[in-house]
Amino acid sequence: MKTKNKFKFKYPRFLNLILIYILVYIIFTKTNIFPIETFLSKIGYFGSFFSGIFYAYGFTAGPATAFFALLAKEQNILLCGLLGGLGSLVGDALIFRFIRTSFGKEIKYLSNEKIILAFVKILPRWLKKHLAIIIGMI
User: Fold this and answer.
1) Are 85 and 46 in contact (CB under 8 A)?
2) Structural domain spans, the chain
3) Is the dihedral of CA 73, 79, 83, 89 positive or negative?
4) Where would you tag: which of 6, 26, 48, 59 has the fewest CB atoms within 10 A of its CB?
């Protein structure tokens, strides 16, 4: 006979994502990132690419900006920027793929919640059509 779990969360992946955000915040505010800086400068232009990957994630964008500033002293700034942009593209693609595959069911389930349906109902028609564009610009 199966027993029911008393502590079942309705959206466990979203809870895990929030916990990861908190953990990353603690790690990047309480630790020294000098070893990462040294590593990125030693691997040359690959460091620019990896800094770009870090730049795509919200909590690591600040340190990635600092890494770019440090790498720009040693590297061609145009090539560093292009490789960083390519790294950011790869990072965004990885995040998109992760969210799409891991959170697809929960997002679909969340879209059927009463509060979300009520919110969508009160939005003006023109805003519904252009909401994705507006959010993309933000």
Assistant:
1) no
2) 12-107
3) positive
4) 6
